[in-house]
Structure formats: structure tokens, C-alpha cells
Amino acid sequence: MTQRGQFITFEGIEGVGKSTQLANAAKTLESLGVDYIVTREPGGTPMAEAIRELLLAPRDEAVQETSELLLMFAARAQHLHNRILPALEQGQWVLCDRFTDATFAYQGGGRGVPLERIEWLENLVQGSLRPDHVILLDTSVETGMCRARKRGELDRFEQEAVPFFERIRDCYLTRAARDPERYCVVDAGAPLEEVTGKVRDLVCNFHKNLL
Questions:
Q1: Rounded to the nearest 5°, which phi and psi values hold at 11?
Q2: 109: domain range?
Q3: Which of 54, 55, 34 lies closest to 211, judged by CA?
Q4: Is 2 a member of any domain?
Q5: How many domains does the chain have?
Q6: Which of 53, 63, 79, 173 is deepest in the core (most CB within 10 A)?
């Protein structure tokens, strides 16, 4: 019987270096001989990527918070059942750029959507599935947004004001503090070599603990 793969998510505000550390984690798994996939949310399948475009595109029309929340979970349902679960069942590790923690942080913390609504949708779409490990890359909003602006044109979320991202960061840190066994907080404001080394060590330990 194939051993179920591990589900590892990377979370954090804008500009914390998730893409860089996802690539670092993938390289680490390769060195360990572990089969894996790299994916992202919202997105990960053709339909979910189409929903991502709807969610991120700047627009004149105000996006109602419930519409945004339901689109997030519609994309997640597609992604989960068509890509994440099949990979895990085949023994592959899944490295995912954001998952439901981002919904709690952005729509819950940032937008003020009642957490009970998010929890209800989480249970509906995911059942009992939760990430095995969450790597939370954390830095100040000022640092993160400075980096994000250097990447180029900002999407609809990145155009929000500083208080929005402060609430998001607070929500992430609160969730991490409540479940320290599953969440690993990494100082993303540290030098890149240090952050990369920390994430590499975490992934190696996740693997070692399964042996």
C-alpha cells in the first residue's frame, strides 16, 4: 500500500518570498528522492486558474465579500479534488502556495468575514483534510509591501491599504500560536541565506520524522 504523501503549505502576507521558498523546498525534496508536485491557490487546475483571474484582476465594480469567499472555495474544491488529493493518494508530497489559512487571514482577518462562515465552508469542501505542515513566512507589512511593489503591477489584493495587511498578519500569527505543532513560523525578514537554510531544515525534518 502506498504511503500517503505529505501536504505542506506556504503562507504569509505579500512579499515574504513564498515562491523562492517553494522552489527551495522542491529542490530539497529532490535531494531526498521524494516525489512531489508544486501548486498554488487560488489556482492549480484550469478551472481554478480561471477563477484566480476573476479574483485577482483589478476592477471598478466592488467585489462583495461573500462573492470573494465563495469564489475562493469554488477554486479550492476543484484544486483539492482534481489535483491535491490524487497526488497525496499516490504518495506524492504536495507543496502549495497558500491554502485555507490564507482565506482565514485575508477574508477573515482582512475583510472581517465571520470565521464561522469560513470554518463551515472549510468543512464542506475539505472534510477532515488539513495541511500536515504550514510554513508561515513572516515579516513586517512595510517590508513585505516594499518587496511586492518591486515585482511590478499590483493585483487587486496587493492594492489594499496597510491596515488590511496588518490584520492579515495578526490573523496568521494568532493561528500559528494556537497550533505550534503544525505551524512553523520563519522570520522572512532575515537574510535570504538564513531563511533558505531554515526552510530546508524544516523540510528535511518533516521527511526524517516519517522514517
A1: -125, 165
A2: 7-208
A3: 34
A4: no
A5: 1
A6: 79
